[in-house]
Specification:
Blueprint: E1 5-8, E2 11-24, H1 25-29, H2 34-37, E3 48-60, E4 63-67, H3 77-83, H4 92-98, E5 108-110, H5 116-119, E6 123-125, E7 131-133, E8 139-143, H6 144-151, H7 167-171, E9 175-178, E10 183-185, E11 188-192, E12 201-207, E13 210-214, H8 237-254, E14 257-259, E15 268-275, E16 278-283
Parallel strand pairs: 4-5, 5-8, 8-9, 13-14
Antiparallel strand pairs: 1-2, 2-3, 3-4, 6-7, 10-11, 11-12, 12-13, 14-15, 15-16
Bound molecules: zinc ion (ZN).
The site of zinc ion (ZN) has 6 residues, from loops.
C-alpha cells in the first residue's frame, strides 16, 4: 500500500514509515495499569508493544521536507532483537522511493527532538562502517537547546541519545540550530511543547483551510489520547497533560488532521468528542 497522503492547499503531506519496533508496554503507558492498556494494545510475551515509526514528508512550493527519520538502519543484530526492529514492510528510504522521492531530493530535515527513535535515519553506515548523512543535500534542523541537552545527557536521559545520529551531521556542516519556533516553509512551523523532553517540538501545518499537527512524542499513539495516558518516559508528565488539554479540544472542534508518529495502524487521524474533556481518535478519511 502506498504511503497515505493528504493535500493541504499547495502542500502534500505524506506519512512515510520506517517500519516498527517494540518497547515495554508499561513504560509506554506510565501510570495506567496493564489490565487497562492491554485491552487496547496487543502485548508480546516480554511485555512489549509494537510502535510505528511514521515520519512526515511535506512537499510543495519546490520544497521537500522530512520531519523525523525513524530508527534507521545502523543497528547490530543484538540491538535489532532487543528492540524488535522490523523493516520488512517499511523502511524510510524505501517509503520515500514509493512516492518518488530520492534521498538527494530532500532539502530539509526537521528533528522534533534527538531521541534515537526519531533521528536514527538521519545517518546511515557507509562502506567503511562510518555513519554519514542519509540525505546528502539536506539542511538538518534541531533546537539549539535540544542539541545541548542531547550532547550533555544525565543518567536519566543518556539512554535516549546516540551521538552517531547527530554528530556526523554536525561534522558534515549540514546541521542548523533553531532558537525558537520557526517557519520551515510558508504554512509550516515548529511548535515547542516540552513535557516528554524539555525541548520537544511538534510541527504544525496551516494550509488550504486545513490544520495538521505532527504530534511526535506528545501523543505518540491513538491509545495516548485519553488525558492520563502519558508515557512513563516523559520527563515532565504534567506539562504533557497541560499541552494535551490545550490541543485536544481545538483538534476535535476544528477537525485537525493529527499525525501519530508511533501508531503503525493509524498514522493519520482526527479526534471525536466522547464527553466533556474526553476524546477518541478515528482514522482520517
Ligand atoms: Zn522521544
Amino acid at each position: 500500500m502506498a504511503p497515505p497522503s493528504v493535500q493541504a492547499g499547495e502542500l502534500t503531506l505524506t506519512a512515510v514509515s520506517d517500519g516498527t519496533y517494540l518497547l515495554d508496554g508499561g513504560a509506554m503507558f506510565g501510570i495506567i495499569p496493564k489490565p487497562l492498556w492491554e485491552k487496547v494494545v496487543p502485548v508480546d510475551p516480554r511485555n512489549r508493544i509494537m510502535l510505528g515509526l511514521n515520519c512526515l514528508l511535506i512537499r510543495g512550493g519546490g520544497r521537500t521536507v522530512l520531519v523525523d527519520t525513524g530508527m534507521g538502519t545502523k543497528w547490530d543484530a543484538k540491538e535489532c532483537e532487543r528492540y524488535g526492529i522490523d523493516h520488512s514492510r517499511h523502511e524510510l528510504v524505501r517509503s520515500l522511493a514509493e512516492v518518488g522521492v530520492s534521498p538527494e531530493q530532500v532539502d530539509t530535515v526537521v528533528c522534533t527532538h534527538l531521541h534515537f527513535d526519531h533521528v536514527g535515519g538521519n545517518t546511515m553506515l557507509d562502506g567503511q562502517g562510518d555513519a554519514v548523512p542519509t540525505f546528502p543535500n539536506a539542511t538538518y534542523w534541531t533546537r539549539r537547546d535540544e542539541w545541548e541537552w542531547a550532547t550533555h545527557p544525565n543518567e536519566r536521559t543518556a539512554g535516549s541519545y546516540r551521538s552517531e545520529n547527530f554528530l556526523p551531521i554536525h561534522e558534515a556542516g549540514q546541521l542548523r540550530f533553531s532558537e525558537g519556533d520557526w517557519e520551515v516553509l510558508p504554512g509550516v512551523r515548529t511548535w515547542w511543547v516540552g513535557g516528554h523532553a524539555p525541548f520537544l517540538d511538534l510541527v504544525r501545518i496551516d494550509a488550504g483551510g486545513l490544520t495538521a499537527v505532527y504530534l511526535a512524542d506528545l501523543i505518540p499513539m491513538a491509545a495516548h489520547v485519553p488525558l492520563p495516558w502519558i508515557m512513563g518516559y516523559d520527563l515532565d508528565p504534567v506539562t504533557t497533560l497541560q499541552r494535551k488539554k490545550q490541543i485536544e479540544p481545538q483538534a476535535a472542534e476544528q477537525g485537525w488532521l493529527l499525525i501519530f508518529e508511533h501508531d503503525d495502524a493509524m498514522p493519520l487521524a482526527r479526534l471525536v468528542s466522547e464527553a466533556a474533556g474526553r476524546y477518541r481518535a478515528v482514522a482520517w478519511s
